[in-house]
Amino acid sequence: MIIGLTGGIGSGKSTVASTFEALGAGWVDADHVAREIVQPGEPALALIIDYFGENIAKPDGTLDRAALRERVFSDSAQRLWLESVTHPRIRERLTDQLAALSRRAPYVLLVSPLLFESGQDALVERTLVVDVPTELQLSRTLARDGVSEEQVHAILAAQLPREQRLAKADDVVDNSGDQAHMRRQVERLDSFYRTL
Question: Is the distance from CB of 80 to CB of 159 less than 8 angstroms?
């Protein structure tokens, strides 16, 4: 069984996924896979450099993610082009990794900030949204990522609005409280998922 775990930026998806992992679940992070497919030597990186120019790469040949983020979040056409190159490659790797984990765990989480937006929800049987108020998303992201408030708002604008994400959820974890509050919700869901 594959559960799609999503939430807006700064909602605590990785923390929730790690809590499930401590209970025996497996998980694959779409963001990690997205970084893998643009490593030096990967076809996607070559296409990105051809499209955006050499200045989108750092001197060591790795992708300048900050420069790319600035370009694509200020121009939706460029973001759509980037997604057309990366999303199919991400989906293929995710499918392989999920299949491998499914053989070893009672259920597997596909952790993806763009679960619904990218169509990755087609890979899962259930969806779980990690939810926090928008103000908390903003403050957590600013503290964690060292990006501007303008960039955080651009990222939020590219993600499904909170209300729509919640409407698509089969399950919700409210991650606006303390760790113990979150852990109790995860433990309850873990018990439920094992019965499915």
Answer: no
